[in-house]
Amino acid sequence: MSSRSSTSMAIGAMGAAVLGSSALQAFLAPSAPSAPSAPVLRGSGSQQTSGPAGRQGGHAMTVGLATAAVALARRRTVVRAEEKPFAGGLIGGESAFSGQDFNFDPLGLAVKCEKYLPWFREAELKHGRIAMLAFVGLVVPEFVRIPGPEQCYGAKTVVEAHNACAGDPYFPFVLDATDFYNKEGHQVGPLFQVFAFCGLVEMLTTFAKTSNVSNKPGLTLENAGDYRLGVNFLPKDEAKIKEMKLKELKNGRLAMLAFGGAITQATLTGNGFPWLYAQKDEERSVSSRSSFCNAGAVPGRGRVARRAEKGYKMSAAVPFLPMSPALEGIPGEEEGFDPMGFSLAIDIRWLREAELKHGRVAMLATVGWITTDLGLRVPGDAFQVSTIEAHDAMVKFGSMPQILVWLGYLELFGFLAIINMQEGKTDRKPGDFGLRGFYPADAKGQYDMQVKELRNGRLAMLAFSGIATVGVLTQEKWPFFDAVVNAVPRDAQQARRASSSRSMPFLPKPQNLGGLVGGEAEFDPLGFSDTFDVKWLRESELKHGRVCMLATIGFVAEQYVQFPGFPAAEDALQAIYVAPVNMTALLLVAAGYIESSSYGGKLTMLDMFEGEGAKRAPGDLNFGKRFLPSNKADADVLATKELNNGRLAMLAFSGMVHHNLVVKGPLFPLFPEGWEGPQGSWDLDSTAGALNSGRLGL
Predict the structure, then answer these.
(1) What crossing angle do the helices spanning 443-474 and 387-397 adopt, rounded to 10°?
(2) What is the rounded distance in angstroms from the CA atom of residue 125 to the CA atom of residue 251?
(3) Does the annotation place 247 within a ligand binding site?
(4) What is the structure's pLDDT at 623?
(5) Is 423 annotated as a binding residue?
(6) Torsion from C-alpha of 364, 369, 374, 377, nearest 10 degrees
């Protein structure tokens, strides 16, 4: 009995040791390669056949634990020595702008599902490409339509067109087996053909690669997303190819977010691009907002349909957007600032309650931060810390949970007050908790006090965000700057000036503007020259400047002089609409020919200054060189004048265009007789509005 017990205990100990080794290995980083097997030590235990069984069990357990320890140590060594690249080295972890590695994978899929990495990249690229096309498809139909059935191609919006083209099946893309040939007219629309075609492409591409069927190669990290389309347009340099792939990937990610937001806004508003809530078309406005105008439970929503019948007024804060009707009568909202239209989708009372609460907390937080930075402290050793360290210190001290409980207690009463207010059981106003200590008695004083609190709260929210950010970045106390400027040594001051931009001394000096005409100002606050080819940037700047110099002359002259056979248009913005179509087409063809032939077809920053183009100076089109001075210094002066005049012309032309949009008339006189001020620069009577409404026949 004793011998059997000892033997069983030995076997159990060996099992526990082996199990313990496996368990320890299970907690190692799964991305690490499998550790090489440990030296064969089990023979030492099996060779000791002499002695009692209990001694054999002790040896077995000792050997098992030693094996686990050796394996674990060697595995850790291998992890350190052979650490795998993030996500198998896939492109996309690095940034296209600053060169930093983000390695964004919060769920750890690159480690947990490493074998599915090729499929993840294939799906990401495919969704990104589709989203880029889809976003363009959301905007283009508002300006250009292709001929087709009226129910699909004549719909007011893309969302309505989709519903019409889908045929409104009871489930997306489901065929009715009883009416397969659509004799009763209830079958799916033409989008089913697109769906079927996409399915065919999918079966012949990704499905074939993931399933290793036919003669298609298996899906790997190298061929994920590669359909061998457009490879002739890729650069020859490997670094440029990687850069191009990175741009496609990031543009696709951006397009997925953009399309998600755009289609949501289009569905909520029921309107076309730019998907604003207010439209002058009464029928569209009333019908598209039916979901927001029912039951009148929310103040402001029920007025949207009635407001649409009378037109709408523009926001004073954002004059190119309409004012939300839900803001009428709300203290502090006379300027109508709600560019995202939140007040039309969410109860304005709940929004105002949240805004006031955040503003009040931010006002207290701002005062608290500055006060503690100035030295005021609560008595006690635990509270003698800096403002930046205060939060973490109080969490460790245990006082933050108490504050959280008390705030939750107050929040509960506030929640009950809001619910009763929204249900109409009380006449409470948002943010009103019955505190009347310093509240004025007259109505005007109360209104002014509410507006002051609202604006101070908004300012405090911005202020506290800035204070916290600057405080952490500088590790300084309020007001976060060194008051002893003269204490900085003169050599350090000179070194700081040498490394700073001349035009913007609070920013670093651009490193890639040397040798360029006009680069002496060292003006590049956004760091474009660190990201893009500086020659291509200068080429683009000169071209836009030259075009704008001509455009400013033409913009002014259009009001007084016209070419023979061209109708007059006092407002230069209308000239393109009254000009003969054939001449407009000729101008576009000529501009396109000049653009292409000037660079031999090399138009992008990837190839414009490669090969023979590397010998050409930016802006040099081999035109008018005989008028240039022979002296290099004089030629540089002339080039600087052209550059500065071009920059001025770009600003001037932008101002001229905006002037005509605001006054809705010609450039001169600057203030037309009887002009009453801006009445909506971008409403439906403007150029952009004419494009959007389709009055121009587009």
Answers:
(1) 90
(2) 10
(3) yes
(4) 84
(5) no
(6) 80
CB-CB contact of 570 with 666 (8 Å): yes
Pair of tokens at residue 175: 């065929």
Lowest-pLDDT range of 36-50, 148-162, 587-601, 662-676: 36-50
Helix (H) or strand (E) holding 308: helix 303-309
Lowest mean pLDDT among 88-97, 155-164, 196-205, 516-525: 88-97
493 annotated to a ligand binding site: no
Query: With helix as H, strand as E and coil as C, how does 594-630 read?
Result: HHHHHCCCCCCCCCCCCHHHHHCCCCCCCCCHHHCCC
CA distance 281 to 277: 11
Phi and psi at 369, nearest 5°, equal -65, -50
**How far apart (Å, rounded) are the C-alpha atoms in residues 652 and 685?**
24
Q: Which residues of 180-199 are buried (b: 16+ CB within 10 A; e: fewer)?
A: eeeeeeeebbbbbeeeeeee
DSSP 203-237: HHTHHHHHHT-TTPPPP-TTTTT----SGGGS-SS
Prior bond of 147 cis (ω within 30°)? no
* Distance in angstroms (rounded) separating the CA atoms of residues 594 and 584: 16
Per-residue model confidence as pLDDT tens digits over 523-578: 888 888 888 889 999 999 999 999 999 999 999 998 888 888 888 888 899 888 88
Neighbours of 662 (CB within 10 A): 18
Q: Binding site annotation covers 80?
A: no
* The pLDDT value given to residue 494: 59
Q: Residue 425 is encoded by which pair of tokens?
A: 């059981």
C-alpha count within 13 angstroms, C-beta hemisphere, residue 111: 17
Give the integer Cα–Cα distance in Å for 314 and 679. 7
543 labeled part of a ligand binding site: no
Q: Three-state secondary structure along 655-698?
A: HHHHHHHHHCCCCCCCCCCCCCCCCCCCCCCCHHHHHHHCCCCC
User: What is the mean predicted confidence (pLDDT) over 266-271?
Assistant: 79
List beta partners, residue 94.
101
pTM of the full structure = 0.35
**Residue type (1 letter), 516:** L
Token digits of residue 319: 């004059």
User: CA torsion, points 234, 238, 239, 241, in degrees to nearest 10?
Assistant: 20
**489/60 Cα distance (integer angstroms):** 72
> CB–CB of 304/289 below 8 Å?
yes
Instruction: Find out whether the peptide bond into 678 is cis, omega within 30 degrees of 0.
Output: no
pLDDT digits (tens, 9 = 90+) for 67-80: 444 444 444 444 44
Distance CA 61, CA 12 (A): 9
Nearest Cα to Cα of residue 535 among 440, 617, 413: 617
pLDDT in tens, 127-180: 999 999 989 888 888 787 777 667 777 777 888 777 777 765 555 545 555 554
Q: Is 129 annotated as a binding residue?
A: yes
CA angle (313, 318, 324) in 5-degree steps: 45
Task: Report whether 142 belongs to an annotated binding site.
Answer: no
**Residue 256: is its pLDDT beyond 70?**
yes
Separation of alpha carbons 39 and 652, rounded Å: 80
Rounded CA separation 159/138 (Å): 9
For residue 188, say whether it is annotated as part of any ligand binding site: yes
pLDDT in tens, 378-424: 888 888 888 888 888 888 888 888 888 888 888 888 888 888 888 88
Residue type present at position 1: M
- State yes or no: 550 annotated in a binding site: no
* C-alpha–C-alpha distance, residues 554 and 16, integer Å: 89
283 is in an annotated binding site: no
